[in-house]
Amino acid sequence: MDSSTTPRVAIVGGGLGGLLCARVLQLHGRPVTVFEGEPSPEARGQGGTLDMHPETGQVALRAAGLLEKFQALSRPEGQEWRLLDHVTGAVLSGEIPDGGDEERPEIDRGRLRGLLLGSLRPGTVHWGHSVGGVTPHPDGTCQVRFREGGSEHFDLVIGADGAWSRVRPGVSDAVPAYTGVTFVETGLDDVDTRHPALAGLTGEGTMMAKAPGRGLFVQRNSGGHIRVYAALRVPEDWYVAGRLDFADTEAVRADLLARYTGWDPALLGFLRGNDSGFVNRPLHALPAPHSWDHVPGVTLLGDAAHLMPPLGVGANLAMLDGAELAQALIAEPTVDDAVRAYESVMLPRAGELAKATAEGLGHLLPG
């Protein structure tokens, strides 16, 4: 893009993909504004641990000039995984990485977000700015409307605002649909001292145990924390039929333990010994593939563009989207040329991965 032009670029959403895009733009001297509805970086927890793939997430981090800092924060030992028999607790299969294996090191999502936030110029992220919608204009610009009132115009608005994107309706009428699988999340703290047996079952990375329609997926995070997901093939309103209130931890625990009758008692310790309550997380996905006709002045990245089941692809892909879109904005002569070039690569790639992860969810948790 001609260095004499300074297109006004707004990124809606302060997640990994949007922040990565902003970082690459700023590295090349491009102005960018990020609007985030949350009031501060500490407003909520950022979820579990992520493995950064060499062909996607690590490529994006290298483009952002942050790969070495990421490696210093990452946990290569977190690549370990094991599959346990749900009845006996015996290890059926697994993999322990070699000492020098850093192909897909793990990092807590919160630490990675903090790394990206710290790399941006002060004031880049406008906290507490909730976007209510966007309106593309015939001149190729786009208007951002804020829930708090008021609006601003930009040459490009990038929707990086996740599953329930407020920018997506500017290009597509698609909405996420329930996949048939719900994760019920909980966690345990100080596992090596307070829950050594569960720490041993988990190992240094990810542990899985599954049966038809049910699974336990357990991730070791940094700081001695373990994150637990009870995975269920259930209707989206499953807890309504059981009259469950997620504020009643003991009632939810009893319901889950009943659903896991016959499982190894040691594995059920992940549901009995949790230090936090339970959180209901139904999994949604956009159509696979999801595409749209190009609209000047607006585009999407990450979950806003291609929400898919959480099988280790989404965060990596969002960051690669962000890097490639920023690089196109730097390289192409106009904003519209850049967005067209980006979408011509991103949409087919995401479509193939969305289909693969939909199939993968069926294999991971068969009915």
TrEMBL record:
Cofactors demanded by this protein: FAD
The alphabetical list of record keywords is: Cytoplasm, FAD, Flavoprotein, Monooxygenase, NADP, Nucleotide-binding, Oxidoreductase
Q: Quote the InterPro entries the UniProt record gives.
A: FAD-bd, FAD/NAD-bd_sf, TetX_monooxygenase
Q: Where does NADPH bind?
A: 44
Query: Does Oxidoreductase show up as a keyword for this record?
Result: yes
In short, the EC number is: 1.14.13.-
Q: Which residues form the signal peptide?
A: none
The residues the record assigns to binding FAD are: 51, 109, 303
Origin superkingdom: Bacteria
**Per the database record, which ranges form the FAD-binding domain?**
8-350
Q: Does the keyword Oxidoreductase apply?
A: yes
- Family under the similarity heading: Belongs to the aromatic-ring hydroxylase family. TetX subfamily.
Job of this protein: An FAD-requiring monooxygenase active on some tetracycline antibiotic derivatives, which leads to their inactivation. Hydroxylates carbon 11a of tetracycline and some analogs.
Under which name does UniProt file this protein? Flavin-dependent monooxygenase
The species this protein belongs to is Amycolatopsis samaneae
